[in-house]
Amino acid sequence: MTTSKFYFGFTACTAVLLASSAVAQTDNDLLNFALNLECLEAEYYSNAVYGYGLNTSTLGSGPGSTGGLKANLSPDLLRIARELVNDEINHVTELRELLGNDAVPCPKMDIGGAFTSLAKAALGIDGFFPYNSDINFILGAFLFEDVGVTALHGAIPLLVSKTVLTTIAGFFPVEAYHAAILRTLLYEKGTEMVTPYSIRVFDFVQGFSDLRGKAGNGKDQGIVVPPADGRSTPYPFANLVPQNGKGVAFTRTPKEVLAIVYGGNATQPGTFYPQGMNGYFK
């Protein structure tokens, strides 16, 4: 399957640090990296489903998010979203239990304007908001779910503790299921136009994928296979499983993930994490 084109356009106490190669990265560092990502996913889904974010305990006394709203979801999609948020909250809770006193607080997160700015960068459009409709909500979730899968896959071979490895290896398929659900829902709506833009869902997704690919060193794919002759077709072949051509899911390093969720630069906080992630990563 064809990899997408490349395009992507402190807190006082605990800012994320990109470690030098001389500093060993521990299991807890990787767990805290996963925790930052799970906080974002859980906060987005919680706001969309319930109209509010995570409680103080789940946030680890972190500041929470800005920009979230209860989404305008159909009954069917609301039921799916409830399952997603339950899984993500469970992931945050499990990571906090595993890390104990070493768990970082959830960082400040932008789950409103970040989507608007990313859609502008990807497609040149204004005013995209993920809480307006079913399709907008799914597109918003698509922006980070695939990233979480590649981050966990990248962490697995670096882990030492069998207990930690078992937990992360257990999270990995759950996140992959989530991403597959979203990609399937988007493919089923692929020929529809995203309101109020004259852009098909297929093309909206490809724009987001290209954006991630530019920042994250490639390793990203949309939900369709472009025709070999380059011609446009209204019903292209599905590409529901992003992989490397050998049936293996992509992996990303923390630096590659940070570049995506920060909006293009791994060392400059922004987009979803305006004050940076919390922890120590390389």
From TrEMBL:
<feature type="signal peptide">
    <location>
        <begin position="1"/>
        <end position="24"/>
    </location>
</feature>
<keyword id="KW-0732">Signal</keyword>
<dbReference type="InterPro" id="IPR052965">
    <property type="entry name" value="Pigment-catalase-like"/>
</dbReference>
<dbReference type="Pfam" id="PF13668">
    <property type="entry name" value="Ferritin_2"/>
</dbReference>
<protein>
    <recommendedName>
        <fullName>Desiccation-related protein PCC13-62</fullName>
    </recommendedName>
</protein>
